[in-house]
Amino acid sequence: MDELSRREVALLKATAANRVDLTGSAEPDVRVDGLPFCDPTTARALVHAGLIEASHPVAPGDRAPARLTAAGAAALGLATLAA
User: Fold this and answer.
1) Consecutive H or E run containing 21
2) Is there a contact between 41 and 27 (Cβ–Cβ < 8 Å)?
3) Which pLDDT value is given to residue 3?
């Protein structure tokens, strides 16, 4: 991803603030504050680009908190996050 949209940045910031969870699947469903994210295509693109991921292995259909990857933190200009 070359340049992030405001929506992408907002989702990355929400992920950094521990407000995001996602399902384990090839096309994960993403929620922010318990509500479906308004743009599932964008959310899935961030997952597929390796910017956010589940915080632990999750079975298909189950939910897990999301976390920023090192690439996601770098995209936001954050220092390296502790694992």
Assistant:
1) strand 20-23
2) no
3) 85
Structure tokens at 40: 């599932």
Cα 16 to Cα 67: distance, rounded to the nearest angstrom: 6
Give dist(CA 73, CA 54) in Å, integer: 15
Cα separation, 29 vs 4, in Å, equals 20
pTM above the 0.85 mark? yes
Question: What pLDDT tens digit does each residue of the chain (83 aa) get?
Answer: 568 999 999 999 999 999 999 999 989 999 999 999 999 999 999 999 999 999 999 999 899 999 999 999 999 987 554 44
Contact 44, 18 (CB under 8 A): no
50: left (phi over 0), alpha (psi -120 to 50) or beta: left
d(CA 7, CA 9): 5
Tokens 């996601």 -> residue: 72
